[in-house]
Amino acid sequence: MDIRPILFTLRRHKLTCFLLILQIAFTCAIVCNTIFLIGQRLDRMRTPSGVAERELVYVQMAYIGDRPDANARAAEDVAALQSIAGVKAATLINELPFDDGSDNMDVRTDPAQRMPSLSATQYFGENLVQTLGLRIVEGRDLRPEEYMDLSDAFTLLANKQYDKLPNTTLVTRAMADRLWPGQDPLGKRFYVGQGIPFTVVGVMADLIRPGHDRLGLGAQYSTLWPVRVSLTEGASFIIRCAPQDRDRVLRAAVDKLKALDPNRIVLGKGTIEQHRRDFFQNDRAMAGMLLGICLALLIVTALGIVGLASFWVAQRNRSIGVRRALGATRGNILHYFQTENFLLTSMGIALGMVLAYGINLFLIVHYELPRMPVVYFPVGAILLWCLGQAAVLGPALRAAAVPPVVATRSV
Q1: pTM of the entire structure?
Q2: 3-state helix, strand, coil in the chain (%, to 5)
Q3: What pairing do the DSSP bridges indicate for beta strands 222-225 and 118-124?
């Protein structure tokens, strides 16, 4: 189709066309960045935990008063939990995956290093590999003889007897690749605190780092230390069982722990799956809000296109009738309005791409977001083109249905 008559007609409505192009441009720019932000939230929510989420339940408890025999009672509690029918493993852990906060320490590959290589979280607790369902991809698990009670470790730290502290650890693959890229991490050493050395004896595939603010700073920078904890140190019980047994095991665990020592209260309990859902609830809400904004903009833009196209059909009733009388088919009229809309939408998209890039640069500078991948630009363009063609279809069909005789009689 020759587009010159279409361009000539559009020049007669410069202000109206400019406003529609501007609306499409702003919609395109905002939609591209909104889809990108939604994708960022969804990627964050899909962060692998590395643990057997469907098999894990937890119980968080606190004691009323002092408990001088905390370590011995903790071992008794764990043994009681392991005796519950259906329990595969149970232990005490200092922090849970998907907790709101986490214990972190700066890691250096050289004790004299001025700036840390990274910050990583440290998980404490016995038998965590089996209980959490972690996958070791290199090396070995921590051995029972390598463990020490956290209270004893604190005493050694206070006395600066660093050489007597546990010095073996497991790290994640992401952390090993960051510290020693292209090298075998087994046997390598890193240092925390006042130059306390740790030797890597095993590498885990994944283990998520707790804390919302930590997901963007190395979500998989996690370590396992051979340190036992008790409830006096704010630890939680974590239990592994078959997915179908989780509710029963959780009830039995709470009852057994209360029976062993009624002088404590339950602070929290549930499945790790629910813990994950709660952890990402703000991300889901944000993604939903952004999606709502995106849909609202698209609807408003579509209504603008429909309104303008309907107005132009009413204004061009006479010219449509003349064209029909001169032999134009319904398909010709339909194609005319679709082409006209395509040209306007394309102009808006071209301007919108520039605006989208500018908005993304603003987000990069002020909110430390990553650069938007190029793929989002054609996605936004295709979405706007499809929206434009769908919005103009109704008015175009009404224009194509104008009978030649009725149109010519209206002269």
Answers
A1: 0.83
A2: 55, 15, 25
A3: parallel
